[in-house]
Amino acid sequence: MNFIAALIQALGKSAEQRDQERKVAYLxxxxxxxxxxxxxxxxxxxxxxxxxx
Length: 53
Prior knowledge:
This protein is mainly alpha-helical.
């Protein structure tokens, strides 16, 4: 039953909400300020889901 509830919850979220949650999780994995700033810059460079060189 938990699988069905999780599936319904996941389907109810918009793409923007899922993207925001992914970004927050990614940033929260940084181990220090340097890595956090690096990850923030990396996310800032993303355009349409593709990283720009």
